[in-house]
């Protein structure tokens, strides 16, 4: 069932008065002039990322409203659960624009959902800040439009795959296998990997092998990898299916290194697989809680504020925290006019408080990707923790 939250208040306690969580369905009696909308996967296959993103959004809005909001008026927050379903995302975004009259939208989490909703935001000239979803086409689709309304604070799949390929080439792996799930995101990742592997003159000797998100046995696909004598595997998979990849590799005795996107940094990968099973699995990431003073401060704040959850998905929380604060910075500059907010996002050049590695001038007319290749790295699971891969 969809979730709608108005005037988010957050389980905070320590942030301030007036931030109690008020859950209610929309009504005209609760109308406000200042609304920002969110569509997150709070249930479904990417709910871990959605819940982490929600924490970052809640904290950014709470801090903003505690400082007085926009000219003394608090910003009202409306959050819907897209259930990791493109059709539900379309319903949510249409509702946010036509009924809730938001000045900007943040989300979604899932690339398949994102690819289904960006046309709506662009057509209606509503800024959409993607802080999690990674498919290249999300930003590329409108990058040559006179004015694109789609922005991103997340490493796209092309950048993530380039980081994987750099690792492969630097360690002289020669026989690559490729796997992907059957979602729109998985297919997008497949296409990106095929293009970049070809450009890097690397041999794809097995795959692309496809699987469904709910598959519980990957031995058929992985046996083909084993027969082809792969020495490295790239897998576009969410955590539940990635656990099945690890189990099936163990079952058939396939012992080669493999990596995925930062979807495999998700806490449920460790929860579902256990630290012994996932040990050695690699993933791309762009954020660690100790990478800067700003990052450390956010981590400490998350641990203190969200006492029941803590900082359980740091990269998703951090990217959303920065993305929301950029939208609010634009609001301060130009007011709740969506078209002016879009322009202001390109002009902000002093965002020095970022907790991610984005530059102070995060966006420009030519570039709506705030995180680049120089901000990511390959990490590896070791003893239940994520470390830099050697």
Walk me through this protein's architecture:
With 390 residues, the protein is an alpha/beta fold. It has 13 helices and 14 strands. It has a seven-stranded mixed β-sheet with strand order 9-8-10-11-12-13-14. β13 and β14 (385-388) form a beta hairpin. Residues 1-5 and 7-32 have low confidence and may be disordered.
Topology:
Elements: E1 5-6, E2 22-23, E3 35-40, H1 47-66, E4 76-81, H2 86-98, E5 105-106, H3 111-123, E6 128-130, H4 137-140, E7 150-152, H5 157-170, E8 175-181, H6 184-199, E9 203-211, H7 219-227, E10 232-236, H8 239-252, E11 258-260, H9 267-273, H10 275-278, E12 282-285, H11 293-305, H12 314-334, H13 338-347, E13 377-382, E14 385-388
Parallel strand pairs: 3-4, 3-5, 5-6, 6-7, 8-9, 8-10, 10-11, 11-12
Antiparallel strand pairs: 1-2, 12-13, 13-14
Helix pairs in contact: 1-12, 2-3, 5-6, 8-9, 12-13
Task: For the structure shown, list the relevant keywords.
Rossmann fold; 2 domains; five-stranded parallel beta sheet; alpha/beta
Going by CATH, the architecture of the largest domain would be 3-Layer(aba) Sandwich
Computed CA radius of gyration, to the nearest angstrom:
21 Å
Total number of helical segments? 13
Relative strand content: 15-25%
Report a brief summary of the structure.
With 390 residues, the chain is of the alpha/beta class.
């Amino acid at each position: 069932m969809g979730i709608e939250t108005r005037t988010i208040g957050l389980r905070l306690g320590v942030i301030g008065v007036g931030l109690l969580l008020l859950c209610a369905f929309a009504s005209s009696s609760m109308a406000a002039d200042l609304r920002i909308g969110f569509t997150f996967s709070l249930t479904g296959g990417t709910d871990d990322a959605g819940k982490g993103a929600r924490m970052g959004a809640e904290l950014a809005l709470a801090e903003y409203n505690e400082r007085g909001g926009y000219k003394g008026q608090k910003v009202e927050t409306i959050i819907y659960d897209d259930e990791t379903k493109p059709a539900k995302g379309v319903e949510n975004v249409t509702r946010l624009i036509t009924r809730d009259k938001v000045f900007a939208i943040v989300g979604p989490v899932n690339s398949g959902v994102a690819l289904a909703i960006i046309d709506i935001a662009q057509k209606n000239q509503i800024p959409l800040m993607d802080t999690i979803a990674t498919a290249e086409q999300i930003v590329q689709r409108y990058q040559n439009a006179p004015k694109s309304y789609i922005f991103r604070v997340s490493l796209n799949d092309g950048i993530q795959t380039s980081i994987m390929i750099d690792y492969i080439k630097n360690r002289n792996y020669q026989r690559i296998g490729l796997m992907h799930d059957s979602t729109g995101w998985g297919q997008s990742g497949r296409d990106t990997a095929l293009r970049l592997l070809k450009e890097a003159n690397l041999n794809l000797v097995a795959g692309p092998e496809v699987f469904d998100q709910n598959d519980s046995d990957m031995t058929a696909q992985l046996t083909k990898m084993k027969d082809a004598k792969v020495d490295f595997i790239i897998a576009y998979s969410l955590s539940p299916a990635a656990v099945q990849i690890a189990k099936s590799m163990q079952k058939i005795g396939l012992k080669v290194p493999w990596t995925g996107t930062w979807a495999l940094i998700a806490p449920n990968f460790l929860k579902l697989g256990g630290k012994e099973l996932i040990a050695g699995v690699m993933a791309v990431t762009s954020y660690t809680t100790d990478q800067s003073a700003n990052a450390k401060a956010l981590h400490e704040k998350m641990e203190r504020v969200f006492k029941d959850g803590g900082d359980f998905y740091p990269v998703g929380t951090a990217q959303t925290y920065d993305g929301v604060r950029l939208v609010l910075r634009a609001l301060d500059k130009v007011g709740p006019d969506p078209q002016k907010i879009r322009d202001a996002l390109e002009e902000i050049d002093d965002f020095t408080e970022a907790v991610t590695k984005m530059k102070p001038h995060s966006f420009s007319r030519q570039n709506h990707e705030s995180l680049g290749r120089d901000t990511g790295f390959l990490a590896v699971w070791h003893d239940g923790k994520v470390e830099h891969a050697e």
